[in-house]
Design brief:
The structure is a single chain. This protein is of the alpha/beta class. It has 2 domains: 204 residues, Rossmann fold (3-Layer(aba) Sandwich); 188 residues, 3-Layer(aba) Sandwich (Rossmann fold), CATH 3.40.50.300. It is built from 20 helices and 14 strands. A 7-stranded parallel β-sheet has the order 3-4-2-5-6-1-7, sandwiched between helices. The structure holds adenosine monophosphate. The site of adenosine monophosphate has 16 residues, from helix 4.
């Protein structure tokens, strides 16, 4: 295994890495850093928690000029992730003089103007707010040499696809583009074909993902008894900091207030809170003033609190992917963690899908905790594999190879396609198109 310096990261950055306890590169960093330093476009399939931020940030810090205009643009789906990624990069950049700033909706645009005026080389942004700046002329992307699409699948889920295309139209084609995504649905590959040059793929096997340090289990319970079981699980936990996931913001509120009535220190985080309230909740949770964070999925994106030892799913998500994102909030940076799901009978099918999609064991806790499986479920018909799981069998996922290793796309195809499209629409590179007219022109 190579050290960061042997991979080609500059001396100042490796010094900062050492200070922050980064001894050896994580697998995704081993693979992606040399490719990016060579100047290639990279697609990385990686969950949060695998070290993907450093995988793209370190080569950028090594390659860009230490002064001057914005040279790298990192697009992220949420403000939490924007704050987290920029903080992480600023840590690495301590001895380089390179400045990273995050721009996201919900923060005063005045503060952002001030930050931009002071000079920025790396910009981390959510798409909507960045478009506001582009339209107002307060951000110039002309000198951007690196674009990173972080959590690309999430950005697509959140409806940012047209925004991303709008933004990429303003970035010089002579750039390196990287895309990181936990999943690779066809839309992501289409985006890559359209906007990336010949790219290299970096894909970790499951064993290398952080999920294998998470002890996963579930308890089948009556819906009306979920809260009692939740309190019990909280009482018997062996690490304090805990995230409880609920399906809606109303449920996070109710749960947090009921937990407080039980004497727990709980706080909520969801998409309807103001940025200040969210920052405050995260601050209190990180400091340990509150040890239970009751969250919805959107708000929890990108939460990186190393001390989180438990993720409790009070409600089961319909999409297995969301389950994997949720449990990735624990066992950060190689630590261990526990993820326990409360499965009520109406959510058994959803949980069955999760069980079928993972190679990792997810234990059923009913017997060891002495909780009887609700009677109705014994007569419920499940898909065959779930019923077998339910009896203690474990299955691997057979659907992982949705795309093949080593895919290469020819550079000129994407470029010609882009040029032709621009020509059709009469675009000039720095044209005066409003966002909506761009949208209309596509329909
Ligand atoms: P990320 O996937 O970028 O969110 O990173 C997950 C966590 O791993 C963060 O807390 C990082 O600070 C930490 N981390 C990333 N790379 C390393 C490394 N090579 N050594 C130690 N910690 C790391």
């Amino acid at each position: 295994m190579k050290t960061f310096q042997e991979l080609g990261i500059d001396v100042e950055t490796t010094k900062a890495l050492r200070e922050h306890g980064y001894e050896d590169p994580f697998p995704i960093q081993q693979e992606a850093i040399p490719l990016m330093l060579k100047g290639l476009d990279v697609i990385g399939q990686a969950h949060t928690g695998t070290g993907k931020t450093a995988a793209f940030a370190l080569p950028i810090l090594t390659k860009i000029k230490r002064r001057g205009p914005i040279q790298a643009l990192i697009l992220v789906p949420t403000r939490e992730l924007a704050v987290q990624v920029s903080a992480e990069i600023n840590k690495f950049a301590k001895y380089t003089g390179i400045r990273t700033v995050s721009i996201y909706g919900g923060q005063s645009i005045g503060i952002q103007y001030d930050q931009l005026r002071r000079g920025v080389q790396i910009l981390v942004a959510t798409p909507g707010r960045l478009i506001d700046h582009i339209k107002q002329g307060s951000i110039d992307l002309e000198n951007v040499k690196f674009v990173v699409l972080d959590e690309a699948d999430r950005m697509l889920d959140m409806g940012f696809i047209e925004d991303i295309k709008f933004i990429l139209f303003y970035v010089n084609e002579d750039r390196q583009t990287c895309l990181f995504s936990a999943t690779m649905p066809p839309e992501i590959l289409r985006l890559a074909q359209e906007y990336m040059k010949e790219f290299e793929e970096v894909r970790l096997n499951e064993e290398e993902l952080s999920l294998d340090t998470i002890d996963q289990s579930y308890l089948i319970v009556y819906e009306k008894e979920k809260f009692r079981h939740l309190c019990n699980l909280i009482r018997i936990r062996d690490k304090k900091q805990t995230i409880v996931f609920a399906a809606t913001k109303q449920r996070t509120h109710r749960l947090a207030s009921e937990l407080k009535q039980e004497g727990f220190r709980a706080i909520t985080i969801h998409g309807d809170l103001t940025q200040r309230q969210r920052d405050n909740a995260m601050y209190r949770f990180k400091r340990g003033d509150e040890d239970i964070l009751v969250a919805t999925d959107i708000a929890a994106r990108g939460i990186d609190v190393p001390a989180v030892g438990h993720v409790l799913n009070y409600d089961i998500p319909e999409d297995p992917l969301i389950y994997f994102h949720r449990i990735g909030r624990t066992a950060r940076a190689g630590a261990t963690g526990k993820a326990i799901s409360l499965v009520s009978q109406d959510r058994i099918d959803d949980f069955g899908r999760i069980l079928r999609q993972t190679k990792h064991p997810i234990r059923k806790l009913n017997e060891e905790m002495g909780v009887e499986v609700p009677a109705v479920q014994r007569h419920h018909t499940h898909s065959r594999s779930f019923s077998r799981r339910y009896q203690g069998y474990e299955y691997g996922n057979q659907n992982r190879d949705r795309w093949s290793r080593g895919t290469r796309y020819r550079k000129d195809v994407g470029n010609r396609y882009r040029q032709a499209k621009r020509h059709d629409r009469g675009y000039s590179h720095r044209g005066h198109y409003s966002h909506s007219s761009y949208r209309n022109s596509r329909s």
